[in-house]
C-alpha cells in the first residue's frame, strides 16, 4: 500500500466532526433567517427569538415565514406572522398563527422580544 503525505485515513472522530459541521451548515442554510430592524436567534429545535427595535420599520424572515412588528401600546404588542396579525401580552399563553406558536417574551422602551416556535 502506498502512503502519500497529507492523505490521512478518516477516523471515527474525524468523520463525526465532519458530519456535525456539515449538519450545522445545513441547518443554518435551511433556517435562512434575515432581518431589518430586528435581531434573530434560532435554535436547531425549531424555535427563534426575534428582537424588534422600537421606532423603526422592523421585520424578520425566520422559519420560512415573515414576522413584522405592527404596533405597541403599553404592554400590548401587535405583530404580523405568516400574513396574520396577532396581539400579544407578556406572560400569556402562546398564540397559534399558521401552525407556529408565538409568544411575547418582553417589552421595553427600546425593544420587543417575541418567540416563534414550530408545532404551535
Determine the N-to-C terminus distance: 57 Å
Number of helices: 1
Overall pLDDT: 79
Strand portion: over 45%
SSE class: alpha+beta
Strand arrangement across the biggest beta sheet: 1-4-5-6-7
Whole-number radius of gyration?
20 Å
How are the secondary structure elements laid out?
Elements: H1 12-31, E1 34-36, E2 38-42, E3 47-53, E4 59-62, E5 65-73, E6 76-81, E7 84-89, E8 95-97, E9 100-107, E10 111-118
Antiparallel strand pairs: 1-4, 2-3, 3-10, 4-5, 5-6, 6-7, 8-9, 9-10
Spell out the key features of this protein.
17% helix; single chain; globular; 5-stranded antiparallel sheet
Description:
The chain is of the alpha+beta class and 120 residues long. The protein is 17% helix and 49% strand. The chain is built from 1 helix and 10 strands. It has a 5-stranded antiparallel beta sheet, with no helix packed on it. Strand 6 and strand 7 form a beta hairpin. The longest helix is centred in the N-terminal third of the chain and has 20 residues. About 12% of the residues have low confidence.
